[in-house]
Amino acid sequence: MTGGTTEGKTRPRGRPRTFDRDAALAVAVRLFWERGYEATSVGELTAAMGIRPASLYAAFGDKKSLFREAVEVYGRSPVGAFVGVALAEEATAYGAFARILREAARVYADPSHPAGCLANSAATNVTEQDAEIAAFLRDVRNAGVASFEERLRQGRAAGELPKDTDTAALASYFAAVVQGLSQRARDGADAQELARVAEFALAAWPGGRD
Amino acid sequence: MTGGTTEGKTRPRGRPRTFDRDAALAVAVRLFWERGYEATSVGELTAAMGIRPASLYAAFGDKKSLFREAVEVYGRSPVGAFVGVALAEEATAYGAFARILREAARVYADPSHPAGCLANSAATNVTEQDAEIAAFLRDVRNAGVASFEERLRQGRAAGELPKDTDTAALASYFAAVVQGLSQRARDGADAQELARVAEFALAAWPGGRD
DNA sequence: ACTCTTCTTGAGCGCTCGCTCAAGAAGAGT
DNA sequence: ACTCTTCTTGAGCGAGCGCTCAAGAAGAGT
Question: What's the pTM?
């Protein structure tokens, strides 16, 4: 509410901003998360932020830059970061993916924010002129698949998976399940249903539960 | 190429249409499949169909009606109907879902048409004024989940699944996997990768492969 | 031949889109 | 007090959106 969080040191010269940039960005995250990039207009954004278009453009550049910042903020938030945290914190590969699926089930269906994952659903339908936005999120998703595979290869090297496990395909499988959980959440599935889906998905773990 | 396919009996009165309605509809299916509902403009549609806007509106009503017709056509095409066909034709529940996943892997990554499933990806991002279109496709998807569950309950009754199997959750699981396959295909995964994903997904079948 | 019906053509409607600009306001620096 | 810088305000730009209308064209019915 008070004071911008970007007060690194001294206040920059010129007239100070009259709105909270981070709060406005959080509003943008919400709207983009809910409807997606193109379906959220600058008019809706400025109305929800309580500012005029020129202020938005002065603070964020243009709509694409605002979206990219929104994706970054989302990725640093708990709901956007839980995958990376689980991959880093869990001792075993199975433990990591079990946690990812179970947390995805809970987080994607959490009614306190839009359903599903912003990175999965915010730029599915775009016109040609915003193809770079779609490509940006696709790269984010495919980077997630790559991080899955990296963790699975580590687990295989540690003897947690059969030596002949196709880690690339298994990573793609878990990515598909996570994206499917996001889609099901957006279609109305609740946390309980998704939690049970997660348990079915984990039953596919090669060589039985580790 | 020649002759409208809608020639039920006598030609209707008035000046005959100069373009092939079904061919134009097939073009619309392609565009909506590729980019989605709102990201495909009437201008792009008419340009690709080779007709003027007034002809499109005379033949199809409005953009929403055209989209709904396109979804119907897609649903009757092999790539849109394979799920229902597999559910009806396969003798066992496991056989049905194995076929569904394997065909989804092949069909969603088939480079001869847009990747993934139109029903999964064509109305993810819509403005408020097209909320009914998003709801329409969501209903289509959830009806698919219901048909999955119906088939699983049949299988459970036939002793193909443990008596305590949570068929609703298992149906949601397979739906999530199918939707995940669609998403992965749109992100560039090829048929070989998706086929391996399908095999991992099938390993989750309760009580082992039937 | 004439009418009736429907489609095609070309122009263009009202609206919203992302975005910008000139003028004024509010702080810091001197 | 004055300047310098930056933000806010209000108006509005050009472009594209979905869609429509009047006029003419092309067939069937009589």
Answer: 0.94
